[in-house]
Write a structure and sequence with these properties.
This protein is mostly helical. The protein has one domain. Helices cover about 60% and strands about 5% of the residues. The protein has seven helices and two strands, in the order H-H-E-E-H-H-H-H-H. The protein has helices at about 10-25, 30-55, 65-75, 85-90, 95, 110, 125-150; strands at about 55, 60-65. The chain has a two-stranded antiparallel ribbon with strand order 1-2. Helix 1 packs antiparallel against helix 2 (about 30-55), helix 1 runs antiparallel to helix 7 and helix 2 (about 30-55) packs parallel to helix 7. The chain is elongated, with a radius of gyration of 15 Å. The chain starts with 10 loop residues before the first helix and ends with a helix.
Length: about 150
Amino acid sequence: MSRLLVGKDDHPEAARKHFDDARVLSDASRLDGAAYHAGYVVECSLKAIVLHDRSYEPATGKTDSAELAAWHKTLCGRKFGHDLAVILAASVGPEGARYFPPLHGRASVVTDWTETMRYWAPGEVREPQVSAFLNWAEVAVGSVVQMQLDGVI
């Protein structure tokens, strides 16, 4: 459990869980499932960074629970949803910028991933796309791991 837990939602924990799932599915040649989970790794990691940035007070080393709850509600709203480009464009301050992965608007996971992949027929997702998504997922979850190592979540 991280400091970013709100209700039952814990974005850093979810990022790691989905990363493990994506790797297992990839190893089992379940490319559609691997791609789907890799996108959720990126989503959960980005949301964790935004939540941290908006609720962490570096001077005290504390997380403001009211700010955390407010931003959690914002990120769960329709504007952000599962849209990686919108989440990526969220304004992040200096604290969050330390962890924000070097994704950009042209990253394949940002431009091509959708939560509706779970409905796609097997074979719709090819290995090169899965490989790219997994690479971005590894970068994103690495940001979460760094926040843990730094003791901020």
